[in-house]
Design brief:
Layout lengths: L12 H52 L11 E2 L1 H4 L7 H7 L37 E2 L14 E4 L1 E4 L24 E5 L2 E2 L7 E2 L1 E2 L2 E2 L8 E2 L38 E6 L4 E5 L26 H6 L11
Parallel strand pairs: 4-10
Antiparallel strand pairs: 1-9, 2-3, 3-8, 4-5, 5-11, 6-7, 11-12
Length: about 325
């Protein structure tokens, strides 16, 4: 009887390198898919935030029979503060008592020993934009180096629906173009460096001082236009008086940004949406609502009562 032996051969260096190369290729192929899946989930959560805020605005309207104002005064409480009870933030609303004073207190004001005006609220933060908890671009007083700003927000309102101050009070009946065809809330990302890719973000609680870009958006500059003219980290309007880029809509979602429409639905809008070519030059004197016209879809969606069909977008 013969005994048989089997010999085991180790991997050669070439075979090992081939296996490593194959694994590297597979990882390279899978990584973009994983990243895309994560961004898709973040974009979905952002859309849920927008829907939640839009429904809160409608619930406010149901209770008061008019939309919340963009702001009470300058500096003053803003639309985000007034809808807090409708996004399950009753405790925060009761502590802040927005509207009990017209002016918005400085960001570091203590409420029961806590600086509540600097505490972020999840519903106002886009998960794709990992930002500091406070927004240094908007402080009170303006350009205050020792004030780190109010809690960051990534969402801004359409002042054609949520008006300046409390008059005129606007209702759903004033949106004669139909709530489906009018923007209600849009996105704005926050990015500080580098300056040529600077986006000023927003705050939700009110207007600290100066520009109301911290609360609202204009439809004069294309979506995802950087606010690189904002030369000061404590004053979003510094160096940006001509084109007012700080009012632009922007996001980290590739190719555009999301909006909550007046009916509460959420739409992703391409950064290449049709726009009035005269809008950028007119940015210093208009929010874009008077630049509507056939084919100017971006401006038409801003206006609540221009009477021009929007079409597909």
């Amino acid at each position: 009887m013969h005994s048989s032996t089997c010999s085991r051969r180790a991997f050669t260096l070439v075979e090992l390198l081939v296996v490593i190369a194959i694994i590297g290729v597979l990882v390279a192929l899978l990584l973009p898919a994983v990243q895309a899946a994560r961004e898709s989930a973040r974009r979905m959560q952002c859309g849920n935030n927008l829907k939640q805020l839009a429904l809160a605005v409608h619930n406010y309207h149901d209770v008061h029979n008019y939309y919340p104002p963009e702001m009470l005064t300058n500096p003053g409480w803003g639309w985000g503060a007034f809808i807090l009870p409708f996004i399950e933030q009753n405790a925060l609303y009761d502590q802040l008592k927005p509207g009990s004073t017209v002016a918005l207190p400085p960001a570091r004001t203590l409420f029961g020993g806590v600086m509540l005006l600097q505490q972020p609220v999840k519903a106002f933060k886009c998960p794709s934009n990992q930002t500091p908890p406070t927004n240094s671009f908007y402080s009170n007083p303006n350009n205050a180096a020792d004030d780190h700003g109010y809690a960051t927000s990534n969402y801004v309102c359409n002042q054609q629906v949520l008006p300046h101050f409390t008059y005129p009070r606007l209702r759903v009946a004033n949106v004669t173009d139909g709530t489906t065809n009018v923007f209600l809330i849009g996105e704005r990302r926050l990015n500080i460096h580098p300056q040529d890719q600077r986006y000023t973000g927003a705050i939700f609680i009110g207007i600290g001082r100066g520009s109301d870009s911290q609360l609202s958006f204009h439809a004069t500059t294309p979506i995802n236009t950087p606010s690189f003219n904002s030369t000061s980290l404590t004053d979003a309007s510094a160096g940006d008086t001509a084109r007012r880029l700080r009012f632009a809509i922007s996001s980290l979602h590739p190719g555009g940004a999301q909006f909550a429409m007046g009916d509460g639905s959420v739409r992703f809008v391409s950064q290449n949406i049709a726009t009035n070519p005269a809008a950028i030059a007119a940015a210093n004197s208009t929010n874009g609502s008077d630049l509507t016209g056939t084919g100017f879809t971006y401006q038409n969606l801003l206006s609540r009562d221009d009477g021009i069909p929007v079409g597909d977008f």
